[in-house]
Amino acid sequence: MTQIYVGNIPYGKDENDLKDLFGQYGEVSSVKFVNDKETGRFRGFGFVEMANQDEANKAITALEGNDFGGRTLRVNEARPRAPRPPRNDRW
Fold first, then answer.
1. Are 2 and 47 a contacting pair, CB within 8 Å?
2. How far apart are CA 24 and CA 28, in angstroms?
3. How far is CA 78 from the centre of its chain?
4. 20 to 30 A from 60, CA-CA: which of 21, 36, 87, 90?
5. How far is CA 5 from CA 39, 88, 90, 91, in A?
6. How confident is the model at residue 87 (pLDDT cuts 50, 70, 90)?
7. Burial (0-12, 13-18, 19+ Cβ within 10 Å), 80
8. What is the pLDDT of residues 63-73, one digit of tens each?
9. What is the pLDDT of residues 7-46, one digit of tens each?
10. Residue 81 confidence (pLDDT)
11. Residue 31 bridge partners (DSSP)
């Protein structure tokens, strides 16, 4: 399973639009948009999971820098999230 980061997604698009776009290159296992925790609004990026590594690489190569709904997509293999220090909510 390969997880792909997709940035600069137009706000008017939804997860199905992204699934259709990546589906041109192979089987899409899942699509997840990232929303702001406080407002619940879409943050303009998300993740696509593809089962086949070769198909994922083809999608990354083909879609990086392409126009999608008027915005230039940023597409690359997702990196593991770096650990963050605990939040201190005290002012």
1. no
2. 9
3. 8
4. 36
5. 22, 29, 33, 34
6. confident
7. exposed
8. 999 999 999 99
9. 999 999 999 999 999 999 999 999 999 999 999 999 999 9
10. 78
11. 48
Spell out a b/e string for 49-74, using b for 16 or more CB atoms within 10 Å of the CB, else e: bbeeeebbbbbbeebeeeebeebebe
Q: Are 91 and 26 in contact (CB under 8 A)?
A: no
DSSP secondary structure string for all residues of the chain: -EEEEEES--TT--HHHHHHHHHTSS-EEEEEEEE-TTT--EEEEEEEEES-HHHHHHHHHHHTT-EETTEE-EEEEPPPPPP-PPP----
pTM exceeds cut of 0.90: no
Cα–Cα distance measured from residue 29 to residue 50, given in angstroms and rounded to the nearest whole number: 5
**77: closest CA among 44, 69, 66, 58?**
58
* Whole-number Å distance between alpha carbons of 20 and 35: 20
